[in-house]
Write a structure and sequence with these properties.
mainly alpha; globular
């Protein structure tokens, strides 16, 4: 969006405020998540922590992969590991995690928080391994998740 574009001229159905010039607004864009749902405070805190650690340490040490217990929790809700999650699946998962974070069921809220932490752990591993595990262009869920963290964090590049 150029500086000369006014608010009235900006068509929300065409482009997201967070999009670059060549991106088109889609239902899976980060802006769509932010517009549709309240971002939980726990997500914002985790995003801030992730961004600070990434900026300072840049994940030079290899992070551990998900444990069997964590994998079992992902399987309970029919989620793939991040290495095998498409962008569309991650978009749907983020919408669910946001919804569950505000749910009255404490067990569901707790599981949503744990899953979000697992996703951050997986993203750190993928970054530390320089995306070596990602062998297929279809599985781009980690890109959506990292963009989500960047958008909700107070710390910008």
């Amino acid at each position: 969006m150029s500086d000369t574009t006014t608010k009235k001229e900006f068509d929300l159905t065409q482009k997201s405020m967070f999009s670059t010039e060549d991106e088109v607004f889609s239902s899976s864009s980060v802006a769509a998540f932010l517009a549709r749902n309240d971002v939980p405070v726990s997500h914002k805190k985790a995003a801030d922590s992730y961004r600070i650690i990434k900026k300072v340490f840049q994940f030079q040490a290899v992070m551990s992969r998900v444990s069997i217990t964590e994998k079992t929790l992902l399987d309970k809700y029919d989620f793939n590991t991040m290495e095998f999650t498409t962008a569309k699946q991650m978009a749907q998962e983020l919408a669910l995690l946001q919804k569950w974070a505000h749910d009255e069921d404490l067990a569901l809220r707790d599981d949503a928080s744990k899953i979000f932490d697992i996703r951050i752990k997986e993203l750190k591993y993928i970054c530390a391994s320089r995306y070596a595990c990602i062998s297929n262009e279809i599985y781009q869920g980690y890109v959506v998740f990292e963009k989500y963290l960047k958008e909700i964090s107070r710390f910008r590049d």
